[in-house]
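Bench notes, afternoon.
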Amino acid sequence: MSTQWKIPLFFLSSSLGDEVCYPRLGCFSNDPPWSGIPGRLLTGLPESPEEMNISFSLYTRETGNNSQVISAINSSTIQNSHFSSHRRTSFIIHGFSSTGKKGWVVEMCLLLLEVENMNCIAVDWKEGAKGTYVSAVNNIRVIGAEVAYFIKTLQVKNRALYSPREIHLIGHSLGAHTAGEAGRRVRGIRRISGLDPAGPYFEGTPPEVRLDPTDADFVDVIHSNAAHFPATGLGMYNTTGHLDFYPNGGTQMPGCNDLLLKMKRSDFEDRLADTTIFGSCHHSRSHDFYFKSILYPTGFVGYPCETYEDFKSGKCFPCPKQGCPMMGYYADRFPYKLKRVNQKYFLNTAADPPFASKSMTFVSYSHWKSDCLGTMLFCHFYKHWLRPVYTKYLDVEIDPKKTKKVEFLWNKTMFTLLWARMGAEAVNIIHGEDGRW
């Protein structure tokens, strides 16, 4: 008589070498690198799909604001739904202490349908995400396996072969690593967008544990609450995609009043282990930015730079010959997106919706005239009309079409010559009706 798997099959010991197996999905152990390595001293094993009550809700233009619950286990629900194999499919995956039944996940699906005729599937694993953070970290392996199983079902059972290159996975926090787990199991997925991938128990871990560039043909990442010394955030700081965007430096977002934690990382992880609800405006900004990028296709230009300090000093302007990518939904339009992995891009955003990058311009000033160029305010002051002797990057809102004059109030001491020391104490932007100087 053949041996059948039981549901669920748990081993209660927390020692290394334990594993649990589930039908359709396979076995999950707590061997390294899943546990027992520096930065990932986890206990426990993932819960069963039934315990987590995982569900997939389909949104299409035909369903309107409603959805259809579909299941890979009962593939007839897919065949009898409005899912179309002739359209691309996006999966939206939430993170810790969240849900796929309402809130930003549903809103994201509905907005995507306004700009593209697609299948949008909201993945809900609320029951597996509402315990401690550690249990949720363990559970995403099963969630990722379920998403992968769903994609494989689409490939073989939905009337016609459905290619993974029609699939786009969008995941926030733990949902980003869930997408990576699915991509590890199903090769050739077109794109994964990681929205502030969770940092604790993932930062510095091997690629198979976390989201990484090999999980899809193209991986783009937004870092909005990165754990960057001395602050401890909920997101990753290290690059983990082809294009990694760091709005406002990637750690603290303007308009958020949350206090960033300052403590040893080990203490931070210990606190997370006992946490049941943990929210952060900075952490959520990543999906806010992504949402708004759908509405503002040119509103979030990222500049190639090594550090945010270099970006703020103006060392990274203007865009190189190949151009600059847009952070968010339209990042895949960048022609050089696959040139290499771990490309870092920085930008500043506004504090309030729609958050789009501030409208700024380069300004070159001489004794004769001033010209407005580019997309950032960058001022060159020339001596003898030959070379710049003073350069200043100013992060201010400006509309070059309506700007009449840019006035600089100088910081000059009686002990310096006119051009020996310069420092603009204040900048006044003067607008005119036609914008001419």
